[in-house]
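User: tokens in, sequence out, please.
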């Protein structure tokens, strides 16, 4: 059976995704999903092996062929000074055949992360690792500097690295206001399919479904930072569309999203916890508070955000999302009580 080019591409990409996910019996999964003969799938597999896209590990088991490159730069040798030169030397030649929208995303995110090393890290050494297969490209950018979460915590006088992570991913946070807008990490994390920062004993992760987590890393080094980014070689994302989602017509960065599960280990109850969340958010016009995995909230916490802060900043739009029944009840309780006073 012959398919048009678009359907054939869809079948092959789906097959490769299943192989990358190490799914059991990927040929059967693909055959059933697309209602095609398994012999047709095996024909595609043989062609992918011949084209060096995948390799046979053992009978019925395959894996994607992947290239890997490492690059080292030293500040004392004056090699860590220009992110564009580093991009042109390392990543650009490896993605030059990819669609223009993919190249644009990588150029932005890569340049922003390397610039952070240049201007903020105080690092002596920079390492860049690039891994690429048919489906996606992954880039790790590591330095031996002071550690991003620790630097932000100390610079702003925050209590914990978790507070620093929360502030960082609100956006508009920088330790060098004269030269940086504080938007690079925020937008890079939104553009990537997967985005992670490893620093000291903490890991922050975000994926293309906008799911984010803070994870303890007991094996983390005292200093140093590693940023890991992954993007599909076939993504339909466009930089402008992502930027427009969080900016206004004048190009201003106006919207932020706060996943509260990353801020609190237990359900938040107090006004002081609310003020911790709201710190610096008066810079934005729209604040999305994500209550996913928050079981309930205290009256003081809800009142401080949805009544006190809102009255102090009437032009700021606060949007709560993913509220369960208990959180929703408290939300409407403080809203309705305030309205009746």
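Assistant: Sequence out:
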């Amino acid at each position: 059976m012959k398919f048009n080019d678009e359907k054939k591409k869809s079948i092959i990409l789906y097959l490769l995704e299943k192989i990358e996910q190490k799914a059991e019996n990927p040929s059967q999964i693909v055959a059933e999903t697309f209602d095609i003969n398994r012999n047709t799938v095996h024909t595609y597999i043989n062609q992918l092996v011949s084209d060096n896209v995948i390799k046979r590990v053992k009978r019925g088991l395959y894996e994607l062929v992947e290239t890997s490159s490492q690059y080292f730069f030293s500040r004392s040798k004056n090699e860590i000074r220009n992110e564009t030169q580093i991009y042109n030397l390392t990543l650009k030649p490896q993605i030059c055949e990819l669609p223009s929208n993919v190249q644009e995303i990588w150029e932005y995110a890569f340049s922003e992360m390397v610039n952070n090393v240049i201007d903020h890290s105080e690092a002596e050494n920079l390492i860049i690792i690039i891994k690429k297969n048919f489906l996606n490209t992954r880039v790790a950018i590591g330095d031996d500097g002071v550690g991003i979460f620790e630097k932000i915590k100390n610079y702003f006088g925050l209590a914990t690295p978790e507070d620093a992570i929360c502030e960082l991913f609100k956006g508009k946070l920088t330790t060098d206001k004269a030269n940086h807008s504080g938007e690079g990490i925020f937008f890079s994390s939104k553009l990537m399919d997967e985005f992670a920062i490893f620093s000291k004993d903490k890991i922050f992760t975000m994926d293309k479904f906008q799911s984010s987590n803070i994870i303890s890393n007991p094996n983390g080094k005292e200093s140093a930072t590693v940023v890991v980014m992954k993007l599909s070689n076939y993504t339909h994302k466009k930089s402008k569309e992502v930027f427009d989602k969080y900016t206004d017509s004048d190009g201003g960065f106006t919207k932020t999203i706060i996943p509260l599960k990353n801020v609190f280990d237990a359900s938040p109850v107090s006004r002081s916890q609310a003020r911790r969340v709201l710190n610096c958010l008066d810079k934005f016009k729209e604040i999305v508070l994500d209550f996913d995995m928050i079981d309930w909230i205290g009256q003081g916490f809800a009142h401080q955000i949805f009544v006190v802060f809102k009255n102090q900043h009437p032009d700021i739009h606060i949007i709560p999302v993913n509220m369960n029944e208990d959180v929703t009840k408290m939300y409407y309780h403080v809203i309705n009580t305030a309205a009746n006073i």
